[in-house]
Amino acid sequence: MHISNYQLFCLLVMHSLGSSTLFALGIRAKQDAWLVVLIGLVIGFGIIWIHTELQKNYPEKNLAEINMTLFGKFFGGILTILFAGYFIWISTLNFSEFAELIAITALQSTPIVAIQTVFAAVIVYLTLKNIEVLGRVSEILMPIVMLSLITLYILIIFSGKVDLKELQPILAKGIKPVLKEVYPTFSTFPYGEDVVFLMYYCYVNKSENIRKFVFSAIFMLGTVLIISTVIIISVLGVPFASSSTIALIEVVKMINIGGIITNLDAIGVVIIFIGGLFKAMLFFYGSVLALSTLFKIKREVIIIVMAIFLVWFNLTTIPNFIFHRFAGISFTNSYLHEIYTVYIPFLILAAIWLKNLNNKIMTRKG
Amino acid sequence: MPTKEILLKVGVLPSVLYLGGVLCLCILVLIILYYLILLFTRIILHT
Which end of chain B is more exposed for a tag (fewer CB within 10 A), N or C? Predict the structure, then answer.
């Protein structure tokens, strides 16, 4: 069971691109939102460095195995269960978000349960096929999604709707509002969310090149996000961008070249679907792998049980899109992400360093 | 909104994840302190 470095790159881009291009990130900093994304990218590199450093110390092990090797079965097990819970919670949020977005944009009369069931079926099918198939699917879909996005951006520029004056004045209220948005909200999301890849790094063919590919993926993602934020703000303006549910769809609706090339919402919906699918799926599979490593139960059994849990949990916990935004932004982005993507990985890394140092002194003594 | 109110509103699993995460952070800090003490003791004994 192995994936190539390029497949890892594609998986990372698809995973992080999922929901981040849809919205105007850091819009609370108004016209300086693109600066939030830019500074977030720099901090994002630091967070990713922690994750890849963890992987470097245990190249053959996933996060669950690292926890159990370092802290023993009891505390390592608890930590793994918490990570599995975190992964399934983020998967639930994405699952509900994208099902809801498809219901809003494309399938208004279809019951949400029907969309969620189809979504869950695709996730179950793909995860049953294992990480190799996920890698190959991402290899095919990543260029399609990127090309669609770039085409949309070019078309909106040719439509003459981009007004860069919307980005002015830069830093009108100083750097403080920008920095307030950067940490923890927009450095742990979307970059920190790549903590789930600690479950997948052990499947990569050449583990010594992982950091190079991960950094390239993050750089590419950051660039796309900055362009996306600039275009959203310069097309919609700050008030509309901050109040719209899905800013990307509003931008796509503005495309009109000579009354011929117009109504391209479908492309936007395809990007929503593919991105959402990958994000929800990778978090879901991360949680499945963590539990199957911990309890030594067949992966297939856990996939089926967790998929049923996912749909049930969605229907019972997240009643509507407003609650989703509250749970996703007010709670998860501000409280959970920080703990699971920065603090715990950093402390695990510190424990590894100290343990290695202790062993070194012991062997020198011996 | 205060943290307690947010936790009550958001549901059981996310609240457990938050509180469990904070608890694990504290335990990890203790483990690191243990390693640090071990390290200094060994350095002192070594020299």
Answer: C
Kindly tell me the burial class for residue A143, based on how many C-beta atoms sit within 10 Å of its own C-beta (0-12, 13-18, 19 or more).
exposed
Tokens describing residue A155: 């078309």
Query: pLDDT (tens digit, 9 = 90+) per residue, A271-282?
Result: 878 888 899 999
Residue of B nearest to A86 (CA): B17
- The ipTM, to two decimals, is 0.92
Place of tokens 């982005």: A333
CB A22 within 8 A of CB A272: yes
What is the residue type of A6? Y
Each residue's pLDDT tens digit, A117-136: 998 999 999 999 989 999 99
The whole-model pTM stands at 0.93
Residues from B contacting A (CB-CB < 8 Å) are: 1, 3, 6, 9-11, 13-14, 16-18, 20-22, 24-25, 27-29, 31-32, 35-36, 38-39, 42-43, 46
A30: nearest Cα among A170, A210, A153: A170
For residues A274 and A116, give the distance between their C-alpha atoms in angstroms, rounded to a whole number.
14
**Chain B contacts of A287, Cβ < 8 Å?**
none
> How many whole angstroms separate alpha carbon A304 and alpha carbon A293?
16
CB A93 within 8 A of CB A332: yes
Contact A296, A101 (CB under 8 A): no
Residue A271 CA to residue A52 CA, distance in Å, equals 28
Please tell me whether residue A94 adopts helix, strand or coil conformation: helix
Q: Which amino acid is at A95?
A: F
